[in-house]
Specification:
Layout (H helix, E strand, L loop, with lengths): L2 H14 L4 H11 L3 H11 L4 H17 L13 H10 L2 E6 L5 E5 L11 H27 L6 E6 L11 H14 L4 E7 L3 H10 L5 H4 L2 E3 L5 H4 L36 H18 L18 H17 L8 H5 L5
Parallel strand pairs: 2-3, 3-4, 4-5
Antiparallel strand pairs: 1-2
Length: 336
């Protein structure tokens, strides 16, 4: 790390030592003992401008305090049928780990419908997975490998993309903005697989709008991406939709335990049990309530708004027919 970078980190640490106690407490949940690595993420997100990075981090910590994000892992989505409906329509899972120890998150970009619950439940679920990743999965991986592992890999499956993306732009912009402002630089690489023609056409328009550091992270792979992904992970860590040699995938694999989206997958079982356990610990203080855990939605950054507008415009150009893709889910790549 260069002298300039180290100087920026030292300046950030000095500034963070001055923030008030509530922000210090929530900052501990953010950095999990890896303070420098956390400061570097925010510095990267603001092009190493210390003043802007500090402002971004403090605003994020205030957002966490005001919305009780530290307690979100003790707030289950109930009843269980509603949680299952959220899982079936917001497709995400942990398929395994790369050979370097980074968690591999699989995202069903094309087949997620987000139509089984209110926006607040999807936001709650999204943040819970982020927090579980940062507070449980990444610290565990760091301990196992004996070095800081503070980022993940994401594999986005474009199977089943439809023009219905237009109905999801608002929600996806909310989720993307939450990540950009509060969980920056958490993803090493985005691998995009099972790509239809329409994605390629939209990608040409959207790619120039992304920051250079984001563009460098995106790799569009041929077919299911299997051969390329096997260079960085074992077969057992491949998402189920990448295990075919050709392109295309199905919503469910033959085995429910292999479908990393499924509530029956070990990752979701552990997450569900963890939230239930945390809920029981807090029950004596505050009984579990029906209803979603409301979080304030951030105003999307100008770049986010421009990307969403461009995607909407591009999709309209393609019209209504012939399996037109839900390109937004794939193109709304967070700058995290």
């Amino acid at each position: 790390m260069g002298l300039v970078s180290q100087d920026a980190i030292n300046q950030m640490r000095a500034l963070m030592d001055q923030v008030e106690e509530p922000l210090q407490r929530t900052f501990q949940n953010v950095h999990q003992g890896y303070i420098n690595e956390t400061l570097v993420r925010f510095l990267k997100a603001r092009e190493w401008n210390v003043s802007k990075a500090h402002k971004m981090l403090v605003e994020s910590l205030n957002w966490r305090v005001q919305n009780e994000i530290d307690n979100i892992l003790s707030k289950p989505i109930v009843p269980p049928d509603l949680y299952r409906a959220v899982r079936d329509s917001q497709l995400i899972g942990l398929s395994g780990y790369s050979r370097e120890g980074h968690p591999v998150f699989a995202i069903g970009a094309g087949l997620s419908t987000f139509n089984e619950a209110s926006v607040h439940y999807y936001v709650q679920s999204h943040i819970q997975i982020n927090e579980y990743r940062d507070r449980v999965i990444l610290p565990s991986a760091s301990k196992k490998h004996g070095q800081p592992i503070t980022t993940c890999v994401k594999v986005l499956d474009m199977t089943g993309l439809k023009l219905s993306a237009l109905n999801q732009i608002k929600l996806l912009t909310i989720l993307s903005s939450i990540d950009d402002l509060n969980y920056p630089e958490k993803t090493n690489t985005y691998y995009i697989v099972n790509v239809p023609y329409i994605f390629s056409a939209c990608w040409k328009v959207v790619k120039p709008l992304l920051q250079e550091r984001t563009r460098r992270k995106v790799q569009v792979l041929p077919g299911s991406g299997r051969d390329e992904l096997l260079k960085i992970m074992d077969y057992t860590s491949l998402p189920h939709f990448c295990r075919r040699e050709g392109s295309g995938s199905s919503r469910h694999s033959d085995s429910g335990s292999e479908d990393c989206y499924s509530l029956d997958h070990p990752f979701h079982q552990r997450l569900y049990d963890y939230i239930k356990q945390q809920s029981r610990i807090n029950e004596a203080v505050e009984p579990v309530k029906q209803g979603s855990f409301h979080v304030d939605f951030p105003e999307p950054p100008a770049e986010e708004a421009e990307i969403a507008k461009t995607i909407e415009s591009e999709l309209h150009k393609f019209g209504n027919g012939n399996g037109i893709s839900d390109s937004l889910n794939g193109l709304k790549i967070n700058h995290d």
